[in-house]
Amino acid sequence: MVVLLALAIGVVGAVSASPDEKKDDNKKEHTALTVLTKNRERNVVDLGPRGPNHGDIRVTNAPLYDESGKERIGRVDLFSVLTDPADEPNEKAHMAEATATYTLLGDEISTQGLRAYPQLSGPSSDGVDAITGGTGKYAGVRGEVRLETRGNKRIITFRLID
After folding, report:
1. What are the pLDDT tens digits along the chain (162 aa)?
2. Domain assignments of the chain as residue spans, ordered by start
3. For the chain, how are helix, strand and coil distributed in percent, rounded to 5?
4. Which of 147, 67, 68 is nearest to 114 (CA)?
5. Are strands 41-45 and 57-65 parallel, antiparallel or unpaired?
6. Alpha-carbon span 12 to 20, nearest angstrom
7. Is the dihedral of CA 24, 128, 79, 76 positive or negative?
8. Measured between alpha carbons, how far is 60 from 42 in angstroms, rounded to an integer?
9. Are the beta carbons of 113 and 95 closer than 8 angstroms?
């Protein structure tokens, strides 16, 4: 009886741990979506003493275009709060916590991350932010967004995890 019970437990354990039912997180599907901005509207709200200080806010909005730059497909709205002004001789950029909403044909992707601004009124350095959520067809989305500047264009590539 003990042998039969041990054999039954072994079979159930082998079936429940079968590779067909085990989800492999390293093999998740990724979808890439690339958009770009050309003309950005930026404004810095200087809240404290004149010049970059903790809590100053940078506000940006811009139209979004498809990867070719010809068709307008949405907009981006972003604000960054300065958390570490470049107030030491060895600091080359102001650091700010950034939150952005990308509206693409009515649906939204939200992102968040730390941005480095060599000049608070200019573009941030290239980098990667986390995708924190979305609406519509992007509801429940996760992944990351890569930001890259080429001339007067900002290339935005979303890497969505399915």
Report:
1. 443 334 333 433 433 343 443 344 555 678 999 999 988 888 999 998 888 899 999 999 999 999 999 999 999 999 999 999 999 889 999 999 999 999 999 999 999 999 999 988 888 899 999 999 999 999 999 999 999 999 889 999 999 996
2. 28-161
3. 15, 50, 35
4. 147
5. antiparallel
6. 15
7. negative
8. 4
9. no
**CB 110, CB 101: distance < 8 Å:** yes
**135 burial via Cβ count (<10 Å: 0-12, 13-18, 19+):** middle
For 28-161, CATH number out of 2.40.480.10, 3.90.1300.10, 2.115.10.20, 1.10.3720.10 equals 2.40.480.10
d(CA 56, CA 82): 5
Q: Which amino acid is at 1?
A: M
